């Protein structure tokens, strides 16, 4: 098996885990490119109401998230959350 084929199979397996988690937790999957390291992530996503940014940031802290994305403003808030 070539390295590229192995990477694709691994990527698909990890995506399947994300989808399984999302199905049990609100049915939202997101993807994003971390321009700091060039990695692309698929995540099971939790969507918070527009007026709950503080709660969303705390949720991010509590769950070891790299960033919080504010969909309405297309804004990325990276760790450390301030």
Notes on the structure:
The protein is an alpha+beta fold. It has one domain (3-78). The protein has helices at residues 3-24, 53-62, and strands at residues 29-34, 39-44, 67-70, 75-78. A hairpin with a 4-residue loop joins β1 (29-34) and β2 (39-44). The longest helix has 22 residues, at 3-24. The termini are far apart.
Draw up the topology in text.
Elements: H1 3-24, E1 29-34, E2 39-44, H2 53-62, E3 67-70, E4 75-78
Antiparallel strand pairs: 1-2, 3-4
Unreliable sequence segments: none
Summed over residues and divided by their number, the pLDDT gives a mean of 88
Residues in helix, % = 25-40%
Total beta strand runs = 4
Summarize the structure.
With 82 residues, the protein is of the alpha+beta class. It is built from two helices and four strands, in the order αββαββ. A hairpin with a 4-residue loop joins β1 and β2.
Q: What distinguishing features does this structure have?
A:
single chain, 82 residues, alpha+beta, two-stranded antiparallel sheet, two-stranded antiparallel ribbon, 39% helix
